[in-house]
Amino acid sequence: MPCQSNEELESILLEAKQYTHNGKVADYIPALSKANPDDLSVAIYHHDGTCYSAGCIHEKITLQSISKVITLALALIESGEEYVFSKVGYEPTGDPFNSIVKLEMSNPSKPLNPMINAGALAVTHMIKGNSVDERFQKIIEFVKLLSGNSDIGYSAEVAESEFETSHLNRALCFFMKQHGIINEDVEELLDLYTKQCSIEVNCLDLARIGIVFALDGKEPVTNKQLMPAHVARICKTFMVTCGMYNASGEFAVRVGIPAKSGVSGGILGAVPSRFGIGISGPALDDKGNSVAGLKLLEILAKKYDLSMF
């Protein structure tokens, strides 16, 4: 079913777009610095399969940290809760997403949650397979399944750019390897992780992934169970508590839905039992979230009473 342009949504997007000048693109990853900071688009995918949009929703962005919630779901399906949470914790953090501080202070030295970089690297380490390519294919096929888009690929340019500049992530990996959280070659894990983050999607893909989470793992049109309901529930819980980096508490107050952001400017939203939301807005605030995307969600939440609280 095609995504229909919507005048009311266009009006909300124009209001939010004024805030793009308050942010800047993620220039610490060279390939992401090419994005247009003035871009903003949104797609909303409803439980009955209807879709409404505003902006250039077919413009591709990379998943970046949005991939963390998808690999968490895959790891839970493959290995189960007990194993996954023996390696990563459940707790939110007020520290930046790439901080090493809590790893050094915690005992045992495992990441606080799967949404910070250390936790996401530990989760990606759990994805089973005999090679980086085999494991990556498993991740990208899962993204295709959730989005209903078999044409999804990844940006080799972004993956290489991230791999070459992932010095802090290397430090996190070596620290976790020292403490037995991971046990594979660090360069291979980073190769897999940067490819995972470089999977390319558009707003509609994000919205369709969002509705699957919103419907506890079910595809809206066919009603097919794409992931177990308890896995979707766990992922949505982390999206609420940790999904918007160390701005998650404020986001819960102002918007109040499960959501996950990425430094490409993407936001994946899941309004329980109602719809999925996909947003692209590359200009970021100082926490790494799309500045205009956050404003757009805040307007939508007030107008349509989206908060689950």
From TrEMBL:
Taxonomically, which superkingdom?
A: Bacteria
List, alphabetically, the InterPro entries matched. Answer: Beta-lactam/transpept-like (IPR012338), Glutaminase (IPR015868)
From the UniProt record, give one GO term of the biological process aspect.
L-glutamine catabolic process
Q: Which reaction does it catalyse?
A: L-glutamine + H2O = L-glutamate + NH4(+)
- List ligand-binding residues for substrate: 65, 117, 162, 169, 193, 245, 263
The entry lists its GO molecular-function terms as: glutaminase activity
Q: What class of enzyme is it?
A: hydrolase
Q: What is its EC number?
A: 3.5.1.2
> Which keywords describe this protein according to UniProt?
Acetylation, Hydrolase
Q: Which HAMAP family match?
A: Glutaminase
What the entry lists under NCBIfam families is as follows:
Gln_ase (TIGR03814)
What subunit structure does UniProt give?
Homotetramer.
**Family named by the database record:** Belongs to the glutaminase family.
For this protein, the record's PANTHER family field holds: GLUTAMINASE (PTHR12544:SF29)
- This chain belongs to which protein, by name? Glutaminase
Q: Which organism is it from?
A: Niallia circulans
Please name the gene that encodes this protein. Answer: glsA
